[in-house]
Specification:
The protein is built from 17 helices and twelve strands. It has 396 residues and is of the alpha/beta class. Strand 11, helix 6 and strand 12 form a beta-alpha-beta unit. The longest helix has 19 residues.
């Protein structure tokens, strides 16, 4: 039997039931004639209008359940209140949400035994609910952060340098965050919850945050926010290999753009030898250097972008921090005045958002090489096991 207690709601009454397209619709409204303004907390009995909101709830056996909630909008009786009108709040139904908390907990229980694509197929076959993988990921992004099947470590791990990175543990948008102890080259823990600040903050709880001196990350803002919130005494270092990877992507974008303006033979020649532009200059053979010398004069923008990339790589070879600081600023200013759109965009990002984190490399000399190696081992374990059905087994 369905009642407001089984639905997890208070201060509402059930008006009617209706079955539509295999769904059971339950019509609800608030059982009080007044509402309280959320800004000034003044009661109001002056309704303005009302609307019906459809919210998906936890299925009953094999029958999908949908709540049709009548929400009224009231005039605020307080003349000093900035809110002239407001929508009444119903306990247990979050505002601006199409799913109840019961439904989110239901998905969490499914996620204990199924990955996200399996949950999507299960909901479609059994309950006729067509949820996208991104929606399932959004609804479950906080679930594994708050609920762990495995007990936490008895004591927090002491780390001097740590690395943060994400990896995919199932098909679709199923991401977890790994925390690596760089100085001891060991995995501290992994947490599911997507590439989010909440997941990064949750995994950082497994180390003694007051003793961490530096944390190495890629250029992902949620990780940067989490580090500044959870690591009071640590500096954030951007992985140097990720920065070089960004510059290589810049070369690819320039190559694709100019290929539309070049002759077919020149465009083909650049495409066939495109990997020479991404490889370090010192690692090229004599034949490859000859090919590169014939490649760069074809287009000035491509040649300039390549030289900017190699110049940045040479800055990483500088051992003196003051000299590196000066050269880094010169590189950013030169790149900003290069008039190459892709290069200007990267230089602005380095200047406005990531300069301190990039320069911190010369203070600590750490990278995410160890982190990437540990994540590669995690992927090998997954392949050997033909992938785990749930995250808890992988973490164990």
């Amino acid at each position: 039997m369905i009642n407001k207690t089984s639905l997890g709601l208070k201060d509402v009454k059930i008006i009617d039931f209706k079955e539509t397209d295999g769904k059971l619709e339950v019509f609800l409204e608030k059982d009080t004639p007044h509402a309280i303004c959320p800004d000034c907390r003044t009661p109001s009995t002056s309704p303005k209008h009302y609307r019906y909101y459809k919210i998906i709830d936890k299925p009953i056996e094999s029958i999908p359940l949908q709540l049709v909630v009548k929400k009224r909008r009231f005039f605020c009786n307080n003349s000093r209140c900035s809110a002239k009108s407001f929508t009444e709040e119903i306990s247990g139904l979050p505002q601006k949400s199409s799913y109840t908390q019961n439904f989110k907990d239901f998905l969490g229980e499914l996620n204990r035994d199924m990955d996200y694509p399996t949950i999507k197929r299960h909901l479609a076959r059994k309950y006729k609910l067509n949820l996208s993988l991104s929606t399932i990921h959004y609804l479950l992004k906080e679930f594994w952060v708050k609920k762990f099947d495995l007990p936490p470590f008895s004591s927090k791990v002491t780390c001097k340098y740590v690395g943060l990175d994400e990896f995919s543990y199932a098909k679709g948008h199923c991401y977890a965050v790994a925390l690596i102890n760089i100085d001891k080259r060991k995995i501290v823990d992994i947490v599911a919850g997507g590439k989010t600040t909440a997941a990064a903050m949750a995994v950082l709880n497994y180390c003694d945050t007051s003793l961490v001196e530096a944390c190495c990350i890629d250029m992902w803002k949620p990780f940067k926010i989490a580090c500044y919130k959870k690591l009071p005494n640590a500096d954030v270092v951007v992985d140097k290999f990720h920065i070089i990877s960004q510059l290589n992507e810049c070369i690819k974008d320039v190559r694709k753009r100019i290929s539309l303006e070049l002759e077919a033979s020149q465009s083909t020649h650049i495409y066939q030898n495109r990997f020479l532009l991404l490889k370090g200059k010192e690692r090229l053979s004599i034949i490859q250097r000859t090919k590169l010398a014939s490649l760069l004069p074809i287009n000035e923008e491509l040649s300039k972008t390549y030289h900017f990339k190699e110049l940045f790589r040479s800055i990483y070879e500088i051992t003196d921090a003051k000299q590196a600081y000066s050269q880094l600023w010169k590189w950013i200013r030169a790149a900003q005045s290069s008039h190459i759109p892709e290069l200007v965009q990267i230089a602005n990002s380095f200047d406005q958002e990531w300069f301190t984190e990039i320069f911190n490399y010369w203070h600590y000399r750490i990278s995410n090489g160890v982190t990437e190696g540990k994540i590669n081992k995690i992927r090998v374990i997954q392949r050997k096991a033909y992938h785990y059905r749930n995250f808890s087994s992988l973490r164990y």
